[in-house]
Design goal:
With 356 residues, this protein is α+β, with helices and mostly antiparallel strands. The strands form three sheets. Strands 1, 2, 7, 8, 9 and 10 form a six-stranded antiparallel sheet that branches. A two-stranded antiparallel ribbon has the order 3-6.
């Protein structure tokens, strides 16, 4: 009874009025925990890598079986450089599919047909020329980034416009071919093409002799509107369609992918970042360098995981003042991110040639 009286006393001493808020203690419920999926995690890692790298970069990754794409500056047109050799070989194989040519057809390359920059085939071209099959020229263009071999393929097709027709005919959005190596590279340097640039150090000597302002203006004009521009998203979509057999016959698709797997260029780029068991069929591109400014530093391709997953990847550096090892480390980090690994130590770097 005493206890009851105490309760009544408390109640009468502190009446609850209208408008008073009655607080009731309840256990707090934590919000649902969201674990990022592969796509979200990859996008986070790629964005962080792009923000940390000083330069004009574009990245796109498309997982073929999941049908998703992540990109950073993926719709920005960027210089392809030798990545554009992919579309030349595609056009050659498409012509072979139509019965317009045979890959066993022999083509004679003479001294006046030689190109600029990297062209290993040049050592075989004597006074009477050098004959090679379209098949071997395609292998040289894709695996060694041989400019003279690629030019011979373009000539057989009928010129640069024929390559662009093949690109447009397959609805490869965001990709263009350009005027060809000789015209494009000399214009980007502030020069005009002449046959002497195929030999010795003539091109480099004349380029270095130009007034710096003239050369800078030419390179700036090239970067502002690259005639060989492509978007990272456009490239990964094209590579995806190639892998799915939508661009070429089954035989030609297998052949092109096989040749791409044998590429020996860019040893310090995407390939250097892949774990054991992963494979890449790819094409590199490397533009001109002026002082500390490097342009058109690219690697694009199809990366296959040991369990069969396939990713189309395009990593493009339009321009940067980062040294070679830093550029390679950036590519390696992207490859590791695609493979689901955290970026690790940068590679020691491998020697690379201008415009390979």
């Amino acid at each position: 009874m005493a206890a009851g009286a105490l309760v009544l006393a408390i109640a009468s001493a502190a009446p609850i009025n209208e408008g008073d808020v009655l607080l009731i203690s309840r256990p707090l419920t934590a919000p649902p925990f969201h674990l990022p999926d592969e796509r979200e995690l990859l996008e986070q890692r790629l964005r962080a890598l792009a923000m940390q790298f000083p330069g004009d970069v574009g990245i796109a990754v498309r997982r073929l079986d999941a049908d998703w794409t992540v990109s950073i500056n993926g719709d920005k047109p960027m210089p392809q450089q030798s990545v554009s050799k992919l579309w030349v070989s595609m056009a050659i194989l498409a012509a072979a599919d139509r019965g317009e040519l045979s890959l066993d057809e022999q083509v004679t390359i003479r001294k006046e047909d030689l190109s600029i920059f990297h062209q290993p085939i040049r050592r075989f071209v004597g006074e009477s020329g050098y004959s090679a099959s379209l098949r071997s020229l395609m292998e040289g263009a894709l695996q060694q980034s041989d400019n003279a071999a690629n030019d011979a393929l373009v000539k057989r097709l009928g010129g640069p416009f024929a390559v662009q027709v093949a690109i447009v005919g397959r609805n490869l959005d965001g990709i263009r071919y350009g005027p060809g190596e000789r015209a494009m590279q000399t214009a980007a340097a502030g020069l005009s093409w002449k046959p002497a640039y195929s030999f010795d150090r003539t091109f480099w000597e004349e380029r270095e002799a130009l007034p710096a302002a003239r050369r800078k203006a030419a390179l700036d004009a090239y970067l502002a509107d690259p005639p060989d521009a492509a978007t990272p998203v456009g490239i990964v979509e094209a590579l995806s369609r190639l892998r799915r057999g939508e661009l070429l016959s089954a035989k030609s698709t297998t052949q092109m992918l096989g040749v791409m797997e044998g590429s020996i260029t860019g040893g310090g780029r995407l390939r250097a970042g892949l774990p054991a068991g992963w494979k890449v069929a790819h094409k590199t591109g490397t533009g001109q360098v002026m002082g500390s400014l490097a342009t058109g530093y690219n690697d694009v391709g199809l990366i296959t995981a040991p369990d069969g997953r396939v990713y189309a990847v395009a990593v493009m550096v339009g321009a940067t003042r980062q040294p070679l090892k830093a550029r390679q480390a950036f590519m390696v980090a992207v490859a590791r991110a695609v493979a689901g690994e955290d970026p690790g130590a940068a590679p020691d770097g491998t020697a690379e040639t201008e415009a390979d």
